[in-house]
Amino acid sequence: MSNESGNKFGETAGFIHGYIQEDLKGELNKVHTRFPPEPNGYLHIGHAKAICLNFGIAELYGGKCNLRFDDTNPAKEDTEFVNSIQEDIRWLGFDWEDRLYYASSYFDKMYEYAVLLIKKGKAFVCDMGAEEIKASRGDLVTPGKNSPWRDRSIEENLDLFERMKAGEFANGEKTLRAKIDMASPNMNMRDPVIYRISHMSHHASGDKWCIYPMYDFAHPVEDAIEGITHSLCTMEFEDHRPIYDWVIKEIGVFDVIPRQIEFAKLNITDTILGKRLLRNLVETNQVDGWDDPRLSTICGIRRRGYTPRAIRNFCEMIGVAKANSTVDIQQLEYCVREDLKDGTPVAKAVLDPVKVVITNYPEGQSEFLPVENHPSNETLGKREVEFGREIYIEREDFMENPPKKYFRLSPDKEVRLKGAYFIKCTGCEKDEEGNVTTIYAEYDPETKGGNCTTRKVKGTIHWVYAPSAVDAKVNLYENLTIKNENSENILNPDSLKTVDAKVEPSLADVKPMDRFQFMRLGYFIADSKHCRKDNLVFNRIVSLKSSFKPDKA
Ligand code: ATP
Ligand code: MG
User: Which of 26, 42, 163, 277 is least buried, going by the fewest C-beta atoms within 10 A?
Assistant: First the structure.
């Protein structure tokens, strides 16, 4: 199954198709999904899975997907998050058109439906406090106890609920509870609270309300109001499905009966998902904001240089199942690398520079050599790079006393400078601590372009011309978390390393978010937050090598 836009997501969502196709054989004639974030934090890669799934499934069946802010909890929500969430979904490549909804805009309807439940004798106002309710719920083996307020008359319940709304009671003094079954084997069916009192301003509805609906009541109502046919959510809501269905059935006024389908959350190795944990890192300044390139927030991976297509491909590749599993972060990096490899221009950069003086190259002279902008993609063209007597190479590309099979530069050995010449090392200079400060070499003018018919060299190294090279800061990343000796995940103290690099002068004009492949080093992006003409900053998106093999996936 595939569709016109090329978004194939959903093909790997096997069991969900089973449900949908079953429904479409019956009375249902459309598919309508929604992505329902709570605006209490930034989206992360786990949400990307849910976004790709909801929008992907809708598109696949010629249906629609709504964006709905599930903003029923006034305590934690903020317009900052409302804006960032929209930006992130758009960036991922999905469009909700004119279907942006707020759960809070249904507060009147929800109140009306709660009154309806009271009138049907299906809900009651309870005077027990939160602790008392908890204590009376029983447990998996013991049935709960009925609330002493359970048999209030409909009139009394209507009156009290209205007075709850009017602000006559303090927080926690009363709740509205569904009247279901205190002996149900499913704890969520033991007369759950569906409205609570909270004297608190709401980011959208202001001070209009002091009672707020609980998730188990609000969510099915939101879905039904919007005509959602398939309400895809994560596994922790599986035990809530009976209450979801109960709410829809007992209110009984809806044309479309939404079906809740659960799928497993995405977990990724060696990183942190979950808004609460992410927020803690940001608020305690352990990272450079919500968009720190090490974070798995959508804004973080955007700043890191991951592409939306790579994320979508990743979500498609990992598929959707009911069983929880943890995906290797290398699989995500593989998708990024695959997406960058054909279209990203190559540039020269040396991350740990040491100077090489080519003593037989005439002083005060230089030349321009043509180089390809990409090893296989000719459409990216060519450019000229300057070469002359002084260049920088990577410190690790030189060894004074190399082991066998070291094919880079060492005394009396020859190496190819990519796109330039063969050079042979004639010696080096060191400081008092024994660190190499300058390497001396001679070039062979007959090997221009790095070509030679008479002899071969095994090593090819990259370089930049020293007089015109530009300084740049380069951020190198490792996984955000590592395991300590007790196998607990802790923050990796080496997750960020910043080095002072030398880069070719063409990079002085980069725009934030420009991407490059630095030869032998990986893919890099000009940092959107800190990179300026007089302060170049690049982030490593991914290195070139991976241990992930797609056929093992
Ligand atoms: P977190 O646990 O990270 O704080 P959340 O579940 O509280 O996330 P919501 O805003 O409530 O975040 O979630 C919006 C949607 O995204 C929900 O349908 C939720 O099931 C889904 N979702 C959240 N985390 C993941 C994940 N790791 N994998 C897949 N879907 C997820
Ligand atoms: Mg949540």
Answer: 26
